[in-house]
Amino acid sequence: MPIKVFIQTYGCQMNEADSEEMFLHLSARGAMRTDKLEDADAVLINTCTVRDHAEHRAISFLGRLCKWKRQNPKRIIIFAGCAAERLGNQLKKRYPYLNIVSGAKEIENFPLTLDKSGLFGPVGKAATAKPGLFAYATIMRGCNFNCTYCIVPSVRGPIKCLPAADILADVQRKAQAGAKEIMLLGQTVNAYQDGNVSFADLLNRVSEVPGVERVRFTSPHPIYFTPQFLAAVKDNPKIARHVHLPVQSGSSKVLGEMKRGYTREIFLEKVHALQANGFEISTDIIVGFPTETEPDFEQTLSLVDQARFMAAYCFKYSPRQGTVAAQMQLHSEETLEKRLDILLNKVKGLAEAAYARQVGTVQQVLMEEPHKGKTSTNFWVQTGLAFSPGSVVSCKIERAEGTLLFARIEHD
Ligand code: SAH
Ligand code: SF4
Ligand code: F3S
Known about the structure:
alpha/beta; Rossmann fold; Transcription Regulator spoIIAA; five-stranded mixed β-barrel; 20 strands; 35% helix; globular; binds S-adenosyl-L-homocysteine; binds iron/sulfur cluster; binds FE3-S4 cluster
């Protein structure tokens, strides 16, 4: 009987991709996947620790598994990922029913960890991944920055770029299995370099893999968006015209204290250059960084006005143990709440305004359902006629309703 494994993933897309990878190692040892916790023989929790709240969710899920394990003590619990890296083996003391702790830096040793545990069968053939229309491809691990608020470098380690040949082989496999859209992943994904293969080269090569219709990537860092990058990708329509580009703050003073490596002006310059080449931009913003004053916060609000983002994800600053900013004096919860509230109010109309801007344009829509698909700029489009999922349809956008576009099909 195969071991049935239930997978719970928290955190970013890199964690989603890591969960898929860990599942392949489990499947090579006789496991199959289940969506029902009550049917499972094993649980894999892949965790995030970027903010306190994220870590809490993972640990409270682990706490709830106590009862599940008591129902059958042979059940297996694996706690993996970024929170596992931070908390390490102290978790095993607190939760003695935990079988395996495998931190984010240990992902390459995950197969060995499974084998050493003696809980799984011998190595055989891994399940064939069926990616559907989308597939992730991890191109680098870790981060070489040291943003003063961020725990990622300490739990993921320094940058390691995967060889371009391995990435292309991975993409080929996924495209052959039916993937049309590939998302390249890394914490500073556009810092990728393998010998003389730059990030732009890699994007172009991935887009040439037979079957690939669209290539996305996340998360880039602003400093690597150079005129050379834009020149190298601008004539390639398969490279998606959407970039998630976290700004974090609109105040150059706070950006300096965060050690982001750019000023407000440089960020806006990069955004406007991308927009001039047809890219839509979404972002992340942190409110209440310890040194953020009211005028700094107002700078963030005015940056939102100037940047014409299509979306902004806003977070309250959360101190992370061991980071530089964790030593600084915190704002009160009341200040954090107040600033978050004001910012959320400011950003709530961004998506609708961005959808409205598309009216009158012609877009290539990658169909996800018979009547619905996404533009290269990442907007949802409803087509009157039905098309098979995975096909790319040229559409004239006639109107926008909230966050949905309605299109007329353009015939050649
Ligand atoms: N590598 C990406 C960000 C990864 S973390 C980059 O550099 O842009 C994802 C997001 O979490 C960040 O963009 C930031 O907005 C948020 N974040 C990271 N650390 C945080 C903290 N200590 N408190 C609040 N938000 C944080
Ligand atoms: Fe964290 Fe900064 Fe690295 Fe992004 S670039 S993962 S925010 S340290
Ligand atoms: Fe979280 Fe780790 Fe991603 S801390 S955001 S899962 S890199």
